[in-house]
Write a structure and sequence with these properties.
2 helices, three-stranded antiparallel sheet, 5 strands, elongated, alpha+beta
Length: 86
């Protein structure tokens, strides 16, 4: 009889517990990364002036605004001056 009681009691306990999550997401920002002037590509940080080849295109990390000396950086596409391969 004890075994029958345990089998009947376990499902009631398992379904009786409810877990809820908060309705709004919590956004966390690492303050040390926020002040760095870098361009990000595939989870890697690149400094101003860095040039990457992405497929057949080249991109350069440069200032987002010409009139700022300490503003945000962004990737800018640059012309591919390399000769075409035959």
């Amino acid at each position: 009889m004890k075994r029958l009681f345990i089998l009947l009691f376990l499902p009631v306990v398992a379904f009786g517990k409810t877990i809820t999550t908060p309705s709004k997401a919590i956004v966390g920002v690492n303050a040390t990364d926020a002040v760095k002037r870098v361009c990000w590509y595939q989870d890697s940080a690149y400094s101003e002036g860095a040039i990457l080849q992405v497929g057949e295109f080249y991109i350069k990390c440069q200032a987002a605004n010409d009139f700022e000396t300490n503003g945000a950086l962004k990737w800018v596409s640059i012309a591919n001056d390399a000769p075409a391969k035959n």
